[in-house]
Amino acid sequence: MEYWSYPPKYDPGYMPEPSSRYWFPVRETMAAGERDTAIAERLRAVMAHAYAKAPFYRRKWDEAGVHPDHVRSLDDFERVPVVTKAELLESQTRAGPFGDYLCIPESDVHHIHGTSGTTGRPTMFAIGGGDWQAIANNHARVMWAMGIRPGDVVFIASIFSLYMGSWGTLLGAERLGAKCFPFGAGAQGMSARAVMWMNIVKPTAFYSTPSYALHLAEVAVEEGLDPRDFGLKVMFFSGEPGASIPSIRRRIEETYGARVVDCGSMAEVTPWMNLAGTYETEGMLVWQDMVYTEVCDPKTYRRVPYGSQGTPVYTNLERTSQPMIRLVSGDLTHWVDGPGPCGRTYPRLPQGIYGRIDDMFTVRGENIYPSAIDSVLNDLSGYGGEHRIVITRDGAMDELLVRMDAQAGIYEAGADAVTRLRARAEGDLLRVLGVRARVEVVEADVIPRTDFKARRVIDDRDLFRSLSQKMDGADGHG
Amino acid sequence: MEYWSYPPKYDPGYMPEPSSRYWFPVRETMAAGERDTAIAERLRAVMAHAYAKAPFYRRKWDEAGVHPDHVRSLDDFERVPVVTKAELLESQTRAGPFGDYLCIPESDVHHIHGTSGTTGRPTMFAIGGGDWQAIANNHARVMWAMGIRPGDVVFIASIFSLYMGSWGTLLGAERLGAKCFPFGAGAQGMSARAVMWMNIVKPTAFYSTPSYALHLAEVAVEEGLDPRDFGLKVMFFSGEPGASIPSIRRRIEETYGARVVDCGSMAEVTPWMNLAGTYETEGMLVWQDMVYTEVCDPKTYRRVPYGSQGTPVYTNLERTSQPMIRLVSGDLTHWVDGPGPCGRTYPRLPQGIYGRIDDMFTVRGENIYPSAIDSVLNDLSGYGGEHRIVITRDGAMDELLVRMDAQAGIYEAGADAVTRLRARAEGDLLRVLGVRARVEVVEADVIPRTDFKARRVIDDRDLFRSLSQKMDGADGHG
User: How far apart are CA A396 and CA B451, in angstroms?
Assistant: First the structure.
């Protein structure tokens, strides 16, 4: 049954033929205009639900003079005020624990997860049982498009705790009828055990952050194993931009001999696989029938034309518990019109999500994204796989220092080899960034690895701090 | 619907009235003799399934001259040869990855988990989708008996990885309609965040190991929080004997102001909540209609009479994927006849599982279980909450050293207070163990805490090593 309505109610027994490229052929390949009409209808239904159940939305929309009935088209919808993460936190602080945007009775909450809360009070995700099933169905659809089929072994190597990445992947894999191996990550010694288990079980699909996959490959080699022997067919990633950066993608594909697929938007809008590539399509598709995504000008929050850069603004079309309606991401991407090589008629993000507005830093007037530096280094032969970016101010001048490690063998080859690697890195960075970076090469494995998301930028300028605050402020506009 | 058959097929919509003490009143309170007749019938059905599907069982039973059809009574069943963990590992090494005791098609495997594998090749648990549902139903029944109801918030503070404890608890909580907060454990900094979250969310039910619950209480105090303010109603534990040891139980109940319930058998026999106390019944009930448990003489593997000590031997009555049929646990308990105060007519384990055959050590001819030392110290005012047991041989004499930490304040009170604490500890240990132990008192928090299972015994005698090997060998008998 190819179901599409709101609230969603999927047939738990539905399963396409393994030979089918699509889980839902009609929804995935329909003409974009026809889909837009259906989306406008769903938007009205989601808004009506939220307006009836959530003081948070009712108050916000009443103040802005918008009403669910007013939304007859996607253009009308652009007049609905956006929601920021700060507003969600404020709502939970005031009307806790789940905030006054919870649209189901508190007793119907099925799972509680949340943000990490490392920098203050966390935000809680309260997900209803019906939503839990809908998330499973949506993720199964996307993982099907990645080429995963019933009977595949899906190895999940990210922590099972607050982080929605692991849980969302598990849900999709369960619904799809795969063999789920929720190994997790985060505790001492787990990396060595992960590669031991992969070598025994031979999983066909793998999920983690791109950083951790590269680290696990290093651990495998230390343990005397070749990651290609794990027999992986597809590896999919979220949590970091890496899997849509061609040089990183290539590095992972060559190391493991598997296809790499990028996915992931925000935990708040789970099903977060609403942005996801497929086995045939690189970058990401915007699965508009799960979560309606507008790539917007970060000042006006109106959609930018296809071919332009902006920040994604998300609206859940299949959530009833805490539906996000025009949630501002603060991420950066550029979108183009569909269809992709796989035949799905969704818009595409050819470079995925390549950064956040507040990730960007400016050095001597040039805007630089950490992902650009990551990309350059991963294209450089001799790069050991990890680096740090340090920005300082030396008098009036910003200094950009990139500390990178060298592949094993470079140091043994002598000082000349190290000097040559540094010179090549500096040349490549200058060409791509348009600004001179000083490179410092260190020995292999000196820079710590991560089993989660990499944090590589260290900014030591006062200037950056104030810039960063200004950006946070921009994030708060309605 | 109160269902009982094999293979199990539960109604996913079934839910008792919140006021009902029992999930399945008939199955839980039927006359023991009537239940035994039904169990014998199930045993034949499970054995017939395993005989048809698993070369492992067919070979084993053919060699022993037993056949499913021969089993007409529980007495007949005692002639079925036992299975050891070593045999499971051997089967997986030979006929991997899931061994030739897998009784469903490999493509029907839904979840993969396993033993930790810290001491060699791990054993894999391959659980089918139908079994996953049956486990959920069984655990929901038991958690219902613990007093957990739909809408309760269940906070799970143990690692989500191979360990079946966390997953089994989550499954039961989901099926019961509770709000599930699978927080996990194991990564750096998670203990402090766990208490922060509990303070915000105010969960009503909590699951971890007893050791970790006591550690979390210490962390809460360090963070300026009172564990009683979390508002917990019931705390249930597995993985260690603690929750059935009166002094530890009392310590946890007083620290948190919540009821403590003990549960848990072995990961291999999941639904491992087949041994579990209830809100009204201390120790554990033996939920014979989920997993048929025989407390056996560890040499003959015949049942010992009620009132005696032995080792549990488990047989799954509701698993189809890897049903365990007479699996030897190596654990120690003593059982008595039912019913318990809650009216359930199952046999009971008043002291829970209090050790393992190979946990026991002998000092100067006395058999000592680590849990006895744990119990004595937890009854001692001034005990800081953690200890180590060190056994050495000084010439011809075994030396038993107990290194314990003192409560904060004891050291500040002066050397006399420390000396008095040591003397009291030595006196209490001598009285209970029948052998003199030397006690060394150290300052509060000097001995490392665990977020999983405590490992407290350090044995430095050659003698113990050979004894330990002999015990492992005994475990391998058929």
Answer: 50
E strand segments, A329-471: 331-334, 348-349, 355-356, 361-363, 366-368, 383-394, 397-406, 438-442, 457-459
Cβ of B160 within 8 Å of Cβ of A162? The answer is no
Find out whether the peptide bond into A97 is cis, omega within 30 degrees of 0.
yes
Cβ A144 vs Cβ A176: under 8 Å: yes
Give the E-state strand segments of B369-430 in sequence order: 383-394, 397-406
Q: Do A174 and B104 contact (CB within 8 A), yes or no?
A: no
A263/chain B closest Cα distance in angstroms? 23
N-term to C-term CA, chain B: 40
**Residue of B273, B288, B246 whose CA lies nearest to B144:** B273
For an interface test with B, give the residue of A108, A163, A175, A181 to mutate (most B CBs within 10 A): A181
Instruction: Quote the tokens at residue A114.
Output: 């949340």
B369 to B335, B336, B358: CA distances (angstroms): 18, 21, 10
Structural domains of chain A sorted by starting position, each given as residue range(s) with its CATH number in brackets: 1-355 (3.40.50.12780), 360-476 (3.30.300.30)
The answer to whether the Cα torsion of A18, A21, A22, A26 is positive or negative is negative
What three-state secondary structure class fits A190? helix
CB-CB neighbors (< 8 A) of A157 in chain B = none
Please tell me which of the candidates A110, A162, A197 has its beta carbon nearest to residue B174: A110
CA angle B28, B34, B39 (to 5 degrees): 80
Closest among A273, A221, A281 to A21, alpha carbons compared: A281
Assess contact for B21 and B343: CB atoms under 8 A.
yes
Q: What's the helix, strand, coil split of chain A in %, to 5? A: 35, 20, 40
Intervals of chain A under pLDDT 70: 1, 118-119, 394-396, 461-478
Residue A455, SS3?
A: coil
Q: What angle do CA B156, B160, B164 make, to 5 degrees?
A: 90
Any residues with CB less than 8 A from the CB of A308 and at least 6 apart, and which? A295, A334, A335
Tokens of A6: 């709101």
Cα A209 to its chain centre, rounded Å, is 9
Structure tokens at B81: 């040869």
Q: How far apart are CA B248 and CA B440, in angstroms?
A: 21
Q: Which of B368, B374, B373, B402 is closest to B388 using CA atoms? A: B402
Please list the residues that pair with A362 across neighbouring strands. A367
Sheet with A397-406: list strands edge to edge. A438-442, A397-406, A383-394, A457-459
- Tell me the C-alpha to C-alpha distance, in Å, between residue A377 and each of A235, A247, A282, A426: 21, 8, 21, 10
Exposure string over A306-328, b if 16+ CB within 10 A, otherwise e? eeeebbbbbbbbbbbbbbbbbbb
Give me the residue from B161, B183, B190 closest to A184, CB to CB. Answer: B161
- Taking CA–CA distances from A199, the nearest residue in chain B reads B97
CA dist., res. A246 & res. A277, Å (int): 13
User: Under DSSP, is residue B328 helix (H, G, I), strand (E, B) or coil?
Assistant: strand
ipTM of the complex: 0.88
Q: Which of A112, A174, A193 has the CB atom closest to B117's CB atom?
A: A193
| Model pLDDT, residue B453 | 84
Cβ within 8 Å, pair B122-A197:
yes
CA-wise closest residue to B377 among B449, B426, B438, B442: B426
Q: What is the pTM of this model?
A: 0.89
Report the residue count for chain B. 478
How far is residue B448's CA from residue B5's CA, in Å, rounded to a whole number?
48
The distance in angstroms from the start CA to the end CA of chain A is 40
What's the gap in Å between the CA of A63 and the closest CA on chain B?
30
Summarize pLDDT for B266-320 with one digit per residue, the tens. Answer: 999 999 999 999 999 999 999 999 999 999 999 999 999 999 999 999 999 999 9
